[in-house]
Amino acid sequence: MFGRNLFGLAAVGFGLCGVVWPDVALWKSIDPFANIVFAQALLYLTSAAAIAGGIAIQWPRTARAGALVLGVLYLFIVLLWLPHYVLKPLAFDYVPAITEELSMLCGAMIVYDGRLARVGYYAFGICVIFFALAQVVYLAYTASLVPAWIPPGQIFWTNATTIFFLLAAIALLTGRYALLAARLLTAMIVGFGLLVWVPACLTHPHKLSNWTEIATNFAIAGAAWIVADYVSGKGSSASSGSGLSRILKPSAR
């Protein structure tokens, strides 16, 4: 339940960024719709959808409707990013942006429930692999985000969290220690938000990218929490009696 709440609040936060920073020129480096025709209208539309979906997903009665709105929004953004990747298929430039949006789409799919929940679960596990790869490819940048005051050092924690991502992906995809992995993954991503993006927003509150990053960070954390709830059978999927046992052992029905 709380994963769904965090997921929705992060979506509202992202939508509010479009309200506070309505100038499309500010979005050109961080979002694909800022570079296409009718960009201003798309910015308003996506902001409204994020806010509406994020609010609706907070309550059980409207959760599926909210998940549908957010799912369509994240799918739309993924489809906007894909042409950039197609133009540079051998580069890793756009993979992080695509997999971040995909991971949020997975969270929405699980909340929506039905057959989509199972697909969302496994797709999220695959996204986690790409999170680890992104940290390897952008090692120097990732290390620069780690607070320098945390011992034993920035490179150590970059390598450690990369390994944690890989272990979490393996656990989720194999089903071994999946609940523990999902919970620890959630805690780690929340930690990123608290240690990296909260201070960034406080020290540079006028920088749009800091606010979109913190919204994305907590949306992914919310998606990981939704996965944990799904594995334990406490998420929206619990209403249909599903959970990890149903994912890995459909014959148990």
Task: List the defining traits of the structure above.
mainly alpha; globular
Write structural notes for this entry.
The chain has one domain (2-252). With 253 residues, the protein is an all-alpha fold. Residues 236-242 and 249-253 have low confidence and may be disordered. The protein is built from ten helices and no strands. The longest helix has 28 residues, at 60-87.
Instruction: Give the termini distance in whole angstroms.
Output: 24 Å
The number of distinct helices, counting runs of at least 4 residues, comes to 10
- Domain unit count: 1
Radius of gyration: 18 Å
Report helical residue fraction: over 70%
Order of helices and strands: HHHHHHHHHH
Total count of strands: 0
**How would you state the average pLDDT, rounded?**
90
Which ranges are low-confidence, i.e. pLDDT below 50, for 5 or more consecutive residues? 236-242, 249-253
For the report, how would you describe the main beta sheet?
none
Molecular shape: globular
Report the portion of residues in β strands.
under 5%
Derived from helix and strand composition plus strand pairing, the structural class reads mainly alpha
Write the layout of secondary structure elements.
Elements: H1 2-20, H2 39-56, H3 60-87, H4 95-112, H5 115-137, H6 139-145, H7 154-174, H8 178-203, H9 208-232, H10 244-248
Structure at a glance:
This protein has helices at residues 2-20, 39-56, 60-87, 95-112, 115-137, 139-145, 154-174, 178-203, 208-232, 244-248. The chain is an all-alpha fold and 253 residues long.
